[in-house]
Each structure stands twice: as C-alpha cells, then as structure tokens.
Amino acid sequence: MASKAEAGKLEWRISVDNETTKRLVPKSGPSERIFLWLKGLIMKTWRIGADDPVKVVHCLKVGLALSLVCIFYYMRPLYDGVGGNAMWAIMTVVVVFESNVGATFSKCVNRVVATILAGSLGIAVHWVATQSGKAEIFLFAATYSRFVPSFKARFDYGAMIFILTFSLVSVGGYRVDKLIDMAQQRVSTIAIGTSICIIISVFFCPIWAGSQLHRLVQQNFTKLADSLDGYVAEYFKKKDVSTKENEETNVKLQGFKCLLNSKGTEEAMANLARWEPAHGSFNFRHPWQQYVKIGAAMRRCAYCLENLSICMNYETEVPDQVKKHFREACMKLSASSSKILRELADMMKNTRRSSKMDFLVFDMNSTVQELQQTLKTVPIQTNKPEEDEEVPFDEDKTIPMSLHEVLTIATLVSLLIENAARIQTTVEAVDELANLADFKQDSKKKTGDNNTKQPPLSS
Predict the structure, then answer these.
(1) H-helix or E-strand containing 133?
(2) In angstroms, rounded to a whole number, what is the distance separating the alpha carbons of residues 126 and 137?
(3) What predicted TM-score, i.e. pTM, was given to this entire model?
(4) In sequence order, what are the residues at sequence separation of 6 or more whose Cβ sits closer than 8 angstroms to the Cβ of residue 398?
(5) What is the pLDDT of residue 158?
C-alpha cells in the first residue's frame, strides 16, 4: 500500500534550457477540454444572473411573450384571422421588448404610430400615383428629424420605422393588388405584438425606469458622503493604520467616480421614465427632468472630490503641525457636509421633506466660516530658513514653510469650502424636486430654530 501511494506522488520532468527541469503535464483530451469549457460557460452565466437578477427576469418575460404570440402562428383559426403576416407579430415582440417598462412603452408607441402614419401616407401616395398615371414614387423621409436632439431622444425609433414602412408600402404597392388589406393585416399583427409586450412588461414583475433613476440618485448621494468623509479622514489620519483598513477605505473612496460619467445614463432613464404610467409614489407627470438637474449638481461635487483626491497624492509633505492646526475645522466641515448628503439620500428614499435640512445647512455654513477664520490665523511664514539653520518649534510662534507647502494645504481647504457651496446648490435642486413632486412633510419636529438666518456661504 505504501509503495502504491508513493508511486501516485511521482511526476515526470524534462530538461529545458538554463540547466533546469520542467514538470511534464499530460495533455487533456478533446472531451475533457469541451467539458471544462462548458463548465466555465455555465459558471460565468450563473454569476451574471446572480449579480443582476433583473436580467434573468427579463429573459423569462421575453420567453413568455414569444410563447403567447406564437399561438397566432400555430393555431389555424388565429392564423387565418391575421393571414400570412403573423410573423410580424413575432418580429415586433423581438424588437420592442426591453428590460424596463419605459423603454418598452416608448418602442411600442413609436412603432404603432409610425406604422399607421407611414402606411396611410404610403396608400395615399400610391392612389395619387395611380390616378395621375405616373410611375414615380413620392417618397417622403423623416431622416432630417433624426438629427434634432429633442426629437431624437424620444422619437428616433419611430422615425426609423416610419421611413421603413413608407418605403415598403410605396414599393410593394406596384406588386400587391389588395394593398389596403395587406396594410390592415400588418397593423393588426403589430398591434397584437405590442399589446402582449405592454401587458407582460407592466403586470409581470415590472421593472420601472423611474424607480431605477430614483434609486440611482439616492445611492449617488450616499457614495458622495462616504467618499468625502473618507478622503478628509485619509488626509489627516495617523500613519499607523492596518492594511485591511486601507483596503476597506479605498473601496469607499472610489465611490464618487461612478458619478463622473453618469450623465448619459441619467438622461436616458429620465426620457424613458416619461413614457411610464403612474406607479408607486410617482404620478404620471412626475418631474423626471429635475433628476437630470440634480445629477448635474452632484457631478459638480464629484469634480471637487476628484481634485481632492489629486491633492492627496501631492509629493510635497505638509508639516504635521500645520495639519494639526487644520484637522479639527476640516473634519468638522466634512462631517457637516456629509450629513447633508445623507439627509438628501433619506429624502429621496422616503420621498418626504426633511425637517432638519435648514439646521444642517446653517451648521455647514457656520463651519465654513470657522474654517475660513482658521485659514486666516494659521501661524506660518513663507520665508523658510536655510537647511543648516535650526528653528525650534513652538505652537505660539510661526511655522517656517515654503510657498509650495502652503499651496498644498490651502488647496485642500479651498476645495472643501467650494464643495460646501456646491452641496448647497444640490440642496436647492432637491428642494425644487420636492415642490414639483409634492413630497409630504416629515412628521418629525424640526431640529433648531426655523427662523434662524443662515450665514452667507462664501468661498
């Protein structure tokens, strides 16, 4: 038994260059390679579904819609009712069914309206050509409208379907005797496909673009607050910090970066949300475009944090005495600013007005003034002594620093003050959303005096 166990541990090695040996691994057969490839594909597919279950739900809904629409093709009575154009219903489901309700509504409405308009115009053009005895095709294309930004954002798909349908009807009219019957069957099959898509998208595990946009803005507020606290704490922290804590902190520090390129996503979601019916706490005419303004205000804050991250990577080291002088004021401003961002996240989550927002903004403005006073009273002198000259440190006396070192800490302070001003702009944007969307008043009592005047925020 021992000899067999030792034999199982033996391995083959071959001599290679540089007088070394390399382990000889037997090659796997084709069946084993195929098995490993299939296993990797299944595991990758499983991870995608586990990370984003919405994709799995969307696939099931598309399969259900296709199963229902195929009934019109397989059952003889239904097939006779729609004629040979039943395939258009299947094609409609494949083309217009999207992952959220807003996108599905947008494509369905665009396809139906564009098909009806283009078909009617195509029949009219065919009739005019027949009556006049001319062979020309009067072709009107809505191509130019696709270059208008406001039209392209909502009706680009409809313009494309209009051009396609008009061309098919105009050209097909010369070879089809019963053009009106063909157009009627085509419209009916497209209406069947779009109706099935809308019903399944709305009533079976609906995924609302408006809810996704609302949740995205709420999460971005939390990421901004975590990044702001993390960067200021990282700048003024002590050097004896464990590696595990550093790794956990770096994850939060990078959270703001998702806002830098979120403009396209927010605008697309806002346009799709405008197509959706009333759902949850969102009315039919909910001010979705205001979310785009809030996102723009948050991006301005994210740009400040990006500059703050660059400031932290300066090679010039600021003396610990100067950091100690600014630590308390900077940490206090960071805490008050992050409280406002988290309070805004709670407002978006609960769709209620905040009862303590005025007090938090007042506290942040007061902290900004304290930091400005701290910046004016910092005990430094820019004429740094020679290297061989020793200057004893005393907290009551000035700290010798070069101008380059002064700019480093001054940049940090100015960025925090500018970020506070931009946060106040974000608060105003969220307040405007609360007025337009008619957020309910928070039942809690306000903290602080409502009649207290806020000091002006200057940078």
Answers:
(1) none
(2) 8
(3) 0.76
(4) 379, 380, 381
(5) 78
